[in-house]
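[recover] target loaded
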């Protein structure tokens, strides 16, 4: 039975994530924490396999917290749930210990469910040993950004086509 610790200030996001995860993974034990100050205490008592760490305030403080958690709990899968979409921030987060990154602005239930299925299946296969070697090439934040870029290119082509096309309403 897997344990998940969710640290998120925003009650709407926290409740939505909990309901989604409990509906699809009923055997998953979920503990909610509102602020990072309670994180390390909760980590020690609850001993989660997965940590979803919500970061909104200051990205640098969030990365320091992330590094501290990774140092103390090297086998915990850390999913960073952040509003920072900058490429440099994502690289820093991976280097400091995040296994996965999800954008608060672009997340969908389908992506979170797919990520959780992967994490839980991997955990079952490797008996709780989750290593960075298992990471996929692209994090979960990059996919929605790529999709948005493709959509924008498609819209631009459509506008060009419509601009070139003579008006046939005459």
């Amino acid at each position: 039975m897997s344990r998940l610790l969710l640290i998120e200030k925003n009650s709407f996001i926290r409740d939505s994530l909990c309901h989604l995860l409990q509906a699809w993974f009923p055997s998953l034990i979920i503990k909610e924490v509102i602020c990072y100050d309670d994180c390390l205490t909760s980590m020690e008592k609850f001993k989660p396999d997965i940590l979803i760490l919500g970061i909104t305030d200051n990205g640098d403080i969030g990365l320091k917290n992330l590094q501290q958690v990774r140092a103390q709990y090297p086998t915990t899968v850390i999913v960073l749930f952040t509003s920072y979409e900058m490429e440099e921030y994502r690289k820093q987060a991976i280097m400091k210990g995040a296994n996965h990154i999800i954008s608060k602005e672009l997340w969908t239930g389908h992506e979170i469910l797919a990520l959780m299925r992967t994490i839980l299946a991997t955990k079952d296969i490797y008996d709780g040993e989750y290593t960075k070697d298992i990471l996929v090439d692209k994090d979960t934040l990059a996919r929605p950004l790529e999709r948005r870029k493709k959509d924008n290119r498609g819209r631009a082509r459509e506008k060009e086509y419509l601009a070139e096309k003579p008006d046939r309403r005459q």
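[recover] notes: Residues 3-164 form a domain with the Rossmann fold fold (CATH 3.40.50.2300).
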